[in-house]
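Hey, resending since the last one bounced:
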Amino acid sequence: MSDRQPPTSRAEPTELPAPLVSPKRFGVAVRPPHYAWNGEHFVSDRLVAVDRASVAGLPGRIEVVIEGDFVGVVADNLDAAQNAARRLRLEWRAPSHAGQGDHDQVPLETRARSRELAAGHGEAASAHRHDYGWPSRLRWGNAPGWVVADCSDQRLMLWGETITPEALIHDLMTLTGLPAERIELYGTTPARVSSLGRHCGDDAAVDAAVMSRQLGCPVAVWLDAAYTRDVHALGQAQRITLGANLAESGEIADYRFHQAHASGDIAAVGLWLCGRPPIRRTEAGGTPPFSPYAFYSAQLATRRDDHGAGRHSESLAEIQQAFARESFLDEVAHDSGQDPLALRLRHLEDARGVELITSVSQRARWGEAPSPAAATSPDRLRGRGFAYSQLPDRHQRIPEGVRSAWIADVEINRITGDVTLTRLVVGQDAGPEVDTDRLQQTLQARVLGSARPLLGRVPAFDEWGDGSEGARAVDPMPGGALATRTDMPTRESAGSEAVTSLPQPLDEVNLAPGVAVIANALFDATGVRFRQPPFTASRVRQALQQQVNPLQEEAPGRPTRRRWLKVAALTALAGTAIMAWPWKGAIAPINRPAANLYSAETIERGRLVAAASDCAACHTAEGGQENAGGRAFDTPFGTLYSTNLTPDEDTGIGRWSYAAFERAMRHGISRDGKHLYPAFPYTAFAKISDADMQALYAYLMAQPAVSAETPANALSFPFNLRPLMAGWNALYHDPSPFEPDPGQSDLYNRGAYLAEGLGHCSACHTPRNAMGAEQKGVHSLAGAMVDGWEAPPLNRLSSSPIPWSEASLYDYLRHGASSLHGVASGPMAPVVAGLGELPEYDVRALAHYVAVQMDAPAGDSETVRADAAARIATAQSGPAGMEEGERLFEGACASCHMDNGPPSFTSAQTSLALNTNLHSQHPDNAIQSILGGVHADHVPGLGNMPGFTDSFSDSQVVTLTAYLRARFAPDQAPWRNIESRVTTIRQHNNSPSPTPDAITRRGRS
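The structure tokens again:
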């Protein structure tokens, strides 16, 4: 295998060509609403019309690229391109052959062959038949990064990330009509690589090439998790059907192997949309695949499809065939109660193969029971798998070919779904000695996806980060772009073969058993059969929760749809009755779980869940120990105190089982059966996924126990009667978990999960009815008053003088300050501090979700910045007739809030002319800031503003507040109720209850 070379069109210069260095144009590809590979054809909506006028009014130079059904938007920076792509109005028409767009649909030929196999086997107990799939894209990429194309002067130069350069060059040749020698690849394009499959770096490369070819200039495209949509749309590239009968002796007979395609290589999405599908010549009954085993009456067939991808397709086909064959034999062995290795040996007549398998099994101690020391925590599962392969040599001679036997051990975190390849024993009877450590790294990164940050993971709504956090350092690039671990290309990086640290497979190794051995180990550990890679954490976790087999046939005797509807209706009625029943049973106490019971990975995930939920902010009293409870909350119904969340057995949750913890979080019922008040926001926590809930429980149980009694609540009648909460729950509480919106992106759904569930943003930012329940519909996130503070609207009702953008929201949530909106203070300060613990992807997702609610653009345009500058200029002088307010401002505020001299540490970074509080309909936040000050310890380099509660009288606070409104929000009407609000807020702040500045926005009702 090592002598088979990819094309020579990969460039190895000493200096990167100038057009690829810091390009000035940035592009975004706009995909159709529906597009998919259905197993035989690529189908998509057809482009009918493009309304270029919808982006004509946007600032900067915006160009729309159209070729067939391909749409691209190109601008001077990435933010502008993304914003224009959102606002571009397009008209699409569904294809006439609707229904073929389902990429999970089984090809007609495959289905026909499956029926033939099934008919031949009948319904005998010894008959086995299974289908195995292979995805068109294993993932979206290795890490976020740039792809830059320059297609001009009859030459294409491309900087980007690809692990299949040969397949990418073939696509680019088809797109441009250029010969291979006129296509040059730079960046992470290794000269020699045997890949397990393509990723979306190739799709981004074709997108950049299409836009560059039309515009005649270099175009940069940002490759990130947004390309996951291509992973889903391209679906399954390969389907292999296997069947066999098993004799009473345990031997396999009537073995059938049918492969739908000789290769599972699907061209880039942009190529199909442009109407330039790869040249494909299809023949039935091509060269049959090879099997190293001898079965009685064996039939092996494949359909040959040659579209010029060369050795890459051959290597991929070998891996796919081995995956299906070795998985099938493992299933047969399990179903018949045979040892998987022994089953293979009884059907292997090759002496070299028998000797190799025997040697590897002895070295790995196959069949030995694990030692007691191997016992793991309850969140861990372990398994072992075997796979074997025999490939021809370079001259296609089978007897002289290489044999390879693999045994792999895996460890699975059942809560997170992460799979770790803990041990790999590989025997190969030809070629140099195998570097198993390097091989193990490669498989871990490319098949399992848990070796962060090596794999760009397929993000799910409850995945933490996108897998690229470890090496991600976001820096602003010219033009508003972002550079992460794959920086914008520079001349010095031209000769680099691997910008990222992703290990490359070894060309001298027979990789064919790699995927199968992991699949078989996963089954041994979990009892779940994965019949299609990759084995990402989200897939593994979902399968463990459901305990069903992905791609498995429908089980016989499954209830009909009508029966399921009846069951669902009865369940809903029963659930409503149970929820409304006021008396709940207690859940028996348990002995406190050991602090080291759960793995470090599970506890770390739980720490992130706790940080996103801001548990400590509400469950820590002033000056008290973290999570020991005792913090007071003033509500319209009386005073509530938070409880002890530490694992103390007497006063905390140390004797709570997970079932009791989950019931409290989802249904608001304590372990002893008492109803909780929705000041504890179980109405939002009900949406937390099972994995995050279990991780949070593990984290809390691993913390130090603190003995601290919770003070008695002081609620007025009848709110002190806890059983009444049953009726409240029946009316206002939906305990169903979060469901992602299939019409939205993964980034949006992740943000929605954080905002609506863990972060429970609506608890403060949504107004409530007379019973303390959040209002729904148009009132959602419309703003509310909480403990003397205004939680501003997070929808289109925002009163900010400068419209929020997604970029500004990210800066505010991630760093605690935005240059156009100011610093996060008051109740938002601890929220931002908690968000600082989260991975960057999660904060970006939260910002994206809020931006969609606000209908905010991706970035701040030049027009917006000019408006901000004009407001600041207007506020340089005060209004006439307010001399007393001006004197107070000059004496107490101007030194920090006006640019009257050299900047100092205490200088405010954002002008009051851009302050949302001064443009609100309510003066409360401005008054709170004057009295209590602004404490922004979470923002490095920003000083705190002292409070003036002891320095100013009520009348002075009123005068200063009115002056600030008139000077810095001159386009707003004067506030009318300042006097009464100052009196009320000062009284509230001076009461024994905690000050609003010490209470977070969490959990009010």
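The longest helix spans residues 311-336.

Sorry for the duplicate.
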